[in-house]
Design a protein that fits this description.
It is a single chain. By secondary structure, the chain is α/β, with parallel strands linked by helices. It has eleven helices and ten strands. Strand 1 and strand 2 form a beta hairpin. Helix 3 packs parallel to helix 4. The longest helix has 19 residues. The two termini are 27 Å apart. The structure holds coenzyme A (COA). The site of coenzyme A has 17 residues, from helix 2 and strand 6.
């Protein structure tokens, strides 16, 4: 599959998806969002891929937001469609059914921060800067930012970031729970690859159901969430990987999971 604005590389069970518009700090225009959609659907279907890394090309930016050239000329109906399209693609990432690691190598602003939040885990270079600066453009986040930020860091901190539009450091992002880990910039990709490889070696069906239970569970009551958890727990008990994982423990060896 060919992409104009993405690089897609496979390294064993790990795929690396790089947003590739470094001349505009990897800003997401409509063709790029569409490339991401096609790549995510391809990776979701590819059984050989068990974990995905999302990052940005160049030294400076992960993604510096939606492309402001497009935003500047949008009309209300287009704006709504624009937001719905971006939300749909980021939902596909969140629910890809395999772990997605955002390797935040620089600015993750606006749509970039929203892209990172749609990923399963976030690892940031110590030089990264994150934020939702849309308010400074007279707009608001439209790719799920108001919803995912509040869920990740809580309402008070989310409203602070959304209303001030300020950029925060990787260290502050770690402190508020917006990212999971911070590493020196030179170690970002090795650390992201190591994390993704570690996740890729886990039982894939269990990983898929854990992600589903957390994502769906956050939207429903505790009681319904626990019902969902029990149903998925029952399903995962039907897998060869459950037998392999428990047998390997009892036989004091490393499990070899097959995703079945
Ligand atoms: N959309 C379109 N183009 C963008 C962009 C975006 N979101 N972010 C950066 N660019 C472009 C700049 O216009 C510039 O293009 P030019 O070289 O043709 O002038 C190029 O990328 C480099 O950016 P520049 O602003 O010169 O870099 P900087 O180091 O001075 O500042 C940022 C970096 C990230 C602080 C600044 O680019 C910025 O604030 N970007 C917008 C962030 C934002 O508001 N995102 C939310 C959008 S909804």
């Amino acid at each position: 599959m060919n992409f104009d604005n993405l690089l897609l590389e496979r390294d064993g069970a790990v795929a690396v998806l790089t947003i590739n518009r470094p001349q505009v700090l990897n800003a997401l225009n409509t063709p790029t969002i569409d490339d991401v959609r096609r790549a995510v659907l391809e990776l979701k279907q590819d059984g050989a891929v068990r974990a995905v890394i999302v990052t940005g090309a160049g030294e400076k930016a992960f993604v510096a937001g939606a492309d402001i050239n497009e935003l500047a000329v949008q009309r209300p109906v287009q704006g709504r469609e624009h937001a719905l399209r971006g939300q749909h693609v980021f939902d596909l990432i969140e629910n890809m059914g395999k772990p997605v690691v955002a390797a935040i190598n620089g600015y993750a602003l606006g749509g970039g921060c929203e892209l990172a939040m749609a990923c399963t885990l976030r690892i940031a270079a110590d030089t990264a800067r994150l934020g939702q600066p849309e308010i400074n453009l007279g707009i608001m986040p439209g790719y799920g930012g108001t919803q995912r930020l509040a869920r990740l860091v809580g309402k008070g901190v989310a409203l602070d970031l959304l209303l001030s539009g300020r950029h925060i450091t990787a260290a502050e992002a770690l402190q508020i729970g917006l990212v999971n880990r911070v590493v020196p910039a030179s170690e970002l990709m090795p650390a992201a690859r190591a994390l993704a490889a570690e996740l890729a070696a886990k039982a894939p069906v269990a990983a898929q159901y854990i992600i589903e239970a957390v994502n769906r569970g956050l939207e429903i009551s505790l009681d319904k969430g626990q019902r969902l958890e029990a149903a998925l727990f029952g399903l995962v008990a039907s897998t060869d990987d459950m037998r392999e994982g428990t047998a390997a423990f009892l036989e004091k060896r490393k499990p070899a999971f097959k995703g079945q």
